[in-house]
Amino acid sequence: MAEWFRRKTEKIKTFDKREIAEGMWLKCPQCQEVVYRNMLEENYFICTNCTHHFRINSDNYIQLLLDNNDYEEIAAKVQSADPLQFQATKKYTDQLQAAKEKTGNLDAVKTLKGEIHGIPVVLAIMDFSFIGGSMGSVVGEKISQAIDRAEKDHLPLVIITASGGARMQEGAYSLMQMAKISSKLAKYSDSGGLYITVLTDPTTGGTTASFAMLGDIILAEPNALIGFAGARVIKQTIGEDLPEGFQRAEFLLEKGFVDHIVNRHDLKKILADLFFFFNFGGNNHADKPDTDSTGGISSDNNPGLEI
Q1: Could you give phi then psi for residue 222, rounded to 5 degrees?
Q2: Which pTM does this prediction carry?
Q3: Over 80: is that where the pLDDT of 7 sits?
Q4: CA distance linking residue 124 with residue 42, whole number of Å
Q5: CA 258, 259, 261, 263: dihedral to nearest 10 degrees?
Q6: Nearest to 79 by CA among 163, 170, 210
């Protein structure tokens, strides 16, 4: 394309057709910058212009966190049934099949055992791309088995949340998972376990109302949407205007619902530092965590996290 035809204003960009193969460019929803997909992948799907954190799937988090991408999957073959024979515009069984084909996963969470900086850990990662990360009976069962494994092996437990809430296609079966997981976590806590949650965009509904907010340490990604009901529903219920951004991670940090906001670049190191701080590091963690003068654990780019 001739250089004289290229537009050079900041707001309008012109690309050669050879540069715009489908899916190769993504527009950042926060700053509207058009970003090359390969650059995003190399940067953990963080916008290179404004640091907006794009949503990523469970496989991306595995690659980000686990040493050598090596792990043992827990309850790998558990799959959803259709106990209510649910059917709306589409059968529930058809929805499940479509989600499996789209994501390559059997349900909305992956549970596994691996190592983070040489420290063994049990990890549960929710995936919003599987029917909105909705919490059904399989999510409850897989997370419950992960908690049991962490208790049995005396390992720290990390749950990365991304969910639209309970899965309505399973009715009360879905709601029961809130109590099931919470009771398992109480037992794990009584045994001396360390439970850390990482809230990502979005974490809403029954997930927020149960295990997402029960962590001993609650971390969140920047600007993550975190809440129970939607803003419109809340406003209609209480009849008052709501503060700007009241369901975002930064607002919840200010009000004490979240302990620390962690950039994706720093998440692996922060988790390893916390394991070591709470005596789950053993002898495998080669480098002791950096601490600031207040005793808070700090990463390269983040202020200290006071314990």
Answers
A1: -55, 135
A2: 0.86
A3: no
A4: 23
A5: -130
A6: 170
